[in-house]
Write a structure and sequence with these properties.
Blueprint (H helix, E strand, L loop, with lengths): L2 H19 L6 H19 L5 H10 L1 H4 L2 H6 L1 H18 L4 H26 L3 E3 H17 L7 H23 L8 E3 L7
Antiparallel strand pairs: 1-2
Helix pairs in contact: 1-2, 1-9, 2-3, 3-6, 3-7, 7-8, 8-9
């Protein structure tokens, strides 16, 4: 097994563990999608089953609504149906490189949602939530990871795996961190947001 496959296998395992440890957090659905998309994509890619990018795209398309846990869980069957439709649509109508573009757009949207939550907690709640800041860093690394893939060069693939290696460390953080851990929430002075 090549080093890149080992890194991808470790990343898949880490994010499965993250999903299990974050089961009760408000981001549990998001982490489940990351772990599911990564695992299915890893299996389909390594066993040459085809369609790995279509699985990534389908799970990525569900990420924005997954950030709204209550709504997402109430409508889970509808979202799963949408995910299946996206998978089949992308399988028949998109070539292999096109899902990267759509995934990148989705990751930018999700990053902006998390960024708005970070700004809100700073300026309205007068606190910095490290958990959400690290989540923002993870999403930013996804954006950086996918930009070189649009060019489809070998350097893009190397960069993809280097950012995956970085994301393993972020995953390890999420295994041990809780969003409501007071050690990861810093109160700001009142005058900061005024």
């Amino acid at each position: 097994m090549q080093i890149w496959n080992i890194i991808a296998a470790i990343a898949s395992l880490i994010w499965i563990i993250v999903a299990a440890f974050q089961w009760h957090s408000k981001y549990s659905s998001f982490f489940i999608l990351i772990s599911f998309g990564g695992l299915i994509g890893f299996i389909t890619y390594n066993f040459k089953l085809g369609g790995a990018q279509n699985f990534y795209l389908a799970s990525a398309m569900l990420m924005p609504p997954s950030l709204y846990k209550s709504h997402f869980q109430k409508q889970i069957l509808i979202y799963l149906f949408i995910g299946v439709l996206i998978y089949f649509f992308s399988s028949f109508f998109l070539d292999e490189s096109q899902p990267h573009f759509f995934e990148l757009l989705i990751f930018i949207i999700v990053f902006l949602i998390i960024l708005s939550r970070i700004v809100k907690s700073i300026y309205i709640e007068n606190m910095v939530k490290i958990f959400e800041c690290v989540l923002g860093a993870y999403l930013f690394s996804l954006i950086i990871k996918y930009i070189p893939l649009l060019n489809e060069g070998e350097s893009g693939l190397v960069f993809y795996y280097l950012t995956t290696f970085f994301q393993i460390f972020i995953g390890i953080f999420f295994i041990f961190a809780r969003e409501d851990n007071p050690k990861l929430i810093f109160k700001l002075p009142q005058s900061f947001s005024s």
